Amino acid sequence: MNREQGLALIEQARIIAILRGVGPEHIEAVAQALLDGGVPVMEVTLNTPGAEEMIGLLQEKFGDRMYIGAGTVLDLKDAERALEAGAGYLVTPNTDEEVIRFAAERGIPIFPGAMTPTEVVKAWKAGATAIKIFPGASLGIGYIKELMGPLNHIPMVAVGGVNEDNIAEFLRIGCYGVGIGGSLVNLKEINAGNYGWVKDKAARLVSGSRQ
Fold it and tell me: Which residue from 193, 195, 207, 176 is spatially nearest to 30, judged by alpha carbons?
């Protein structure tokens, strides 16, 4: 899936599933469950054992139907590793202008993490596709809404604290999208082989996003 197709998928789905700690024996089934539940965008965090191999496998198996990226990209070395593995986009928890410029110069979408207005503006000027407001669960929807007052020209992705009950509110205030990790990609259910739980949760989130 090319850049334009992938970004169009994000703008359509508005949900990015964050896969952290999912084992390689579960990765294909989890991807299928997310897809069946209506969430075709996912990132595999680089601090997951075997992340690079899983990104490559997912691209091979699902790359024509899903937009697959790498998360927890901390520095330039991580960015290079992620792209070599086949990641279609990069997500970081921090604001590293070198990493942002690296991706932007190569036409790779990047969603860097930022918390303060200063970090948000720096990341945007460096070439970010949209800014990941993190840690969203602690900051809350009110904080993001306040940020959007003077910075409404900068697309923002809320990560942390998003669930099926409040996802519509995050999108109503103008979020470009939301990133959802453990509350969707639940390791207890996955390790038990209960992939249907992931599918159902994804479907509820998608339904909530359309309210």
Answer: 195
43 is catalytic: yes
pLDDT 10s digits, 7-59: 999 999 999 999 999 999 999 999 999 999 999 999 999 999 999 999 999 99
Among residues 98, 132, 189, 201, the one annotated as catalytic is: 132
Q: Is 128 inside a domain boundary? A: yes
Question: Inter-axis angle of helices 97-105 and 117-126, to 10 degrees?
Answer: 30
CATH number of the domain where residue 61 is located: 3.20.20.70
Q: Is residue 211 part of a domain?
A: no
pLDDT digits (tens, 9 = 90+) for 182-195: 999 999 999 999 99
Residue 21 lies in a domain: yes
Q: Does residue 56 form part of some domain?
A: yes
Looking at 11, 28, 43, 188, which residue is catalytic?
A: 43
Is 199 an active-site residue?
Answer: no
Q: Rounded distance, CA 37 to CA 206, Å?
A: 8
97-153 confidence digits (pLDDT tens): 999 999 999 999 999 999 999 999 999 999 999 999 998 888 899 999 999 999 999
Is the confidence at residue 211, as pLDDT, over 90? no
Total structural domains in the chain? 1
Residue with tokens 């599933």: 17
Q: Is the pTM of this model over 0.70?
A: yes
